[in-house]
Amino acid sequence: MTSDGEVVDEAIHAAWDSYRILERRTPDAERQQAQQRVQAAMDAYGREEVSRGTVFLVGVMTAHIIGPQDVKEEDRLDPLSDLIPAVIRKLPDFELAEPAQVPMITGVLMAAAMGMNTVAWRDQFGTISPKEALAHNFVLWLLADLFDSMVEQPGATDQLMRKTFDSLAATG
């Protein structure tokens, strides 16, 4: 039996693996390993927990991109006029992203921009459907791509996340 913390860690790691599956720079062997880890996490903890892990990471990435609240206004990316519209406009680039998912995606992004717990906010609406989960995966990819562009370093987000997971595994 695992503790809740282990479930959460594995679900979040699997959620990031979903990003790595979408990321074209991920080598084929690593993509296959990521697919296996996602499937193993879904088998062990359920698709819902992995989907909730993605919602959590969308919140983390949004907060990271927006930056600390004490930074001067002109140095911050405005979530309402810049971040959220940019993500929503790019979502149709993914053929499998259904427009019907946009309201919930926007809500999760808004909750993150307001500093709310995105998982708790999303949980109030019931379970996450597979179509919505896929849309959250696309949003996570878009946020990671945006951050990479902001720091002008392709793959920077993936490197940061992998280091974070490695350090968590070393301390766990």
List the helices and strands and how they pair.
Layout: H1 4-22, H2 28-45, H3 47-66, H4 79-90, H5 102-113, H6 118-123, H7 130-150, H8 156-171
| Number of continuous helical runs | 8
The biggest beta sheet reads: none
Oligomeric nature of the chains: single chain
Unreliable spans are none
Mean pLDDT: 88
Topology as a string of helices (H) and strands (E): HHHHHHHH
Q: How does this model look, in words?
A:
With about 170 residues, the chain is mainly alpha-helical.
In short:
The chain is an all-alpha fold.
Keywords:
single chain, 172 residues, 8 helices, 0% strand, globular
